[in-house]
Amino acid sequence: MYFTDRGIEELVRRRGDEEVSMAWLAEQLQAFVDTHPELETAVERLATWLARLDDPED
Question: What angle do CA 49, 55, 57 make, to 5 degrees?
């Protein structure tokens, strides 16, 4: 198990039954980047990856 898997597992355990909108998720990611600007690149890569999941070009 990677260290990051623990955070993912905690997310599923604590909030796994919730449904959220993409707008809500985008707001949370922006708030996170505002608090942790050194992680902006990683968050941007995650957001781009999520945005393009169904894009056959990628």
Answer: 105
Residue 47: name the closest of 14, 30, 13, 19 by CA.
Answer: 30
Q: Answer yes or no: pTM beyond 0.70.
A: yes
Would the CA dihedral through 5, 58, 34, 42 be positive or negative?
positive
Tokens of 2: 């990677």
Q: What would the pLDDT profile of 32-44 be if each residue is shown by its tens digit? A: 999 999 999 999 9
Classify residue 17 as exposed, middle or buried by CB count within 10 Å of its CB (0-12, 13-18, 19+).
exposed
Angle between helices 22-35 and 40-51 (to 10 degrees): 170
